[in-house]
Design a protein that fits this description.
Shape: globular
Number of helices: 5
Number of domains: 1
Strand content: 15-25%
Largest sheet: 6 strands, parallel
Radius of gyration: 16 Å
CATH architecture: 3-Layer(aba) Sandwich
CATH superfamily: Flavodoxin domain
Distance between the termini: 26 Å
Number of strands: 8
Helix content: 40-55%
Order of helices and strands: EHEHEHEHEEEEH
Length: 188
């Protein structure tokens, strides 16, 4: 199983810290999974100009092809101005409309206030649904108060991250079995 983590911002440390916790949990619980963590702060991704994702070069091609090859994607994003960062939106723009068909997507969100959960419900989930994702309905929402010196200090958040990891893998395995059974119905 190929699982890609996408840390969707070029600035700040909280989302990357949360993604590090998530991938540590993932590697401990599912050592056979093929894990790739993409932190957009470490890549020079071009702005989408309408080309197909495989026509780009360099970091843009690597990031988009890695996402397209994944079975599951864990998106980590901060909330900026009550919205997703432009860097994350650009990734969505680089990919085709049905990029997430047959992919399980889970989300981890960092924000300054509890009211920012609405961004996930009103912006991120609709984009992912439009792109045909199988969305893990429960996501991890982490407030600024849950961090101290680049560490997560709230045990409940750590528990929810572990649950997100488990839900992502279980849902991915389940959808694979469903697709396999559906394909077996065809006689060619």
């Amino acid at each position: 199983m190929k699982i890609v983590g996408l840390s969707g911002s070029k600035v700040g440390s909280k989302t990357r810290t949360a993604m590090n916790y998530t991938f540590k949990s993932m590697s401990e619980k599912y050592p056979d999974a093929e894990l790739t963590l993409i932190d957009l702060a470490e890549f020079d991704v071009q702005f989408s100009d309408g080309r197909n994702y495989w026509e780009y070069e360099g970091d843009t091609k690597y990031v988009s092809e890695t996402i397209m090859a994944a079975d599951a994607i864990i998106i980590g994003t901060p909330v900026f101005q009550a919205s997703i960062p432009g860097t994350l939106k650009n990734i969505f723009d680089l990919l085709p409309v049905n990029a997430f068909r047959d992919k399980v997507i889970s989300m981890l969100v960092t924000a300054g206030t509890p009211k920012h959960y609405l961004m996930v419900e009103q912006q991120l989930k609709p984009i992912l649904a439009y792109m045909k994702a199988q969305i893990v309905q429960t996501y991890v929402f982490i407030e600024e108060k849950d961090f101290h010196r680049k560490e997560i200090t709230n045990d409940d958040v750590l528990f929810r991250i572990e649950r997100l990891v488990e839900d992502t893998v279980v849902l991915t395995d389940t959808y694979k079995l469903i697709r396999k059974a559906k394909e077996a119905e065809y006689d060619f």
